[in-house]
Amino acid sequence: MDERCSALEQEEAWKENEISKAARGIRYYQVDSAASIKRVICTQCNQSNPVTDVDLENLSLDCSECDTTLDLTDPDRIVTVSTKNHPEVAQMQYLHQLQQRQRELAMAAQGTPLQPQAPSYAQQLEALMTRPLPSSLSNLVAAAAAAPYPPRTCLY
User: Fold this and answer.
1) Contact 65/45 with Cβ under 8 angstroms?
2) Is the distance from CB of 51 to CB of 38 less than 8 angstroms?
3) I need a surface site. Which of 61, 81, 126, 148 has the fewest CB within 10 A?
4) SS3 for 61-113, per residue?
């Protein structure tokens, strides 16, 4: 009896800890391979939801409290999921994180900021003013400059 009470107390403490982290905006991904209970904390209502085999096949889960659909392939939306018998979910999430990290490293190696920045209006205007005219326009401008001005006539 004491073991069951202790397990329930640990479960409740775990849930309170996860809810506290979620309430503070802490979003992290953790795979607990030793646990036999598979669950996901909803990021909308902080409800702990069990993950079934059907959920793992569909890679999505509907929250039992607020009906939010949680994507099990998006590690940013999952607070905790235990995947003792379903390592494919952990593998997909790991690959997602690895690809994202590789993109960040590639952009950093090129010196490209992670957030692309548009050139300022002054830089764009200067680039337009200093670029050479296409040859067809250059010839047209040269011909117009060489031509004598037509005589002015009064239309009054």
Assistant:
1) yes
2) yes
3) 148
4) EECCCCCCEEECCCCCCCCCECCCCCHHHHHHHHHHHHHHHHHHHHHHHCCCC
For the chain, helix, strand, coil in percent to 5 are 45, 10, 45
pLDDT tens for residues 65-92?
Answer: 787 777 766 655 554 555 554 566 666 6
| Nearest of 103, 125, 127, 123 to residue 115 by alpha carbon | 103
pTM of the model: 0.28
Interatomic CA distance for residues 27 and 77, integer angstroms: 7
DSSP state of 20: H
CB-CB neighbours of 35 under 10 Å = 14
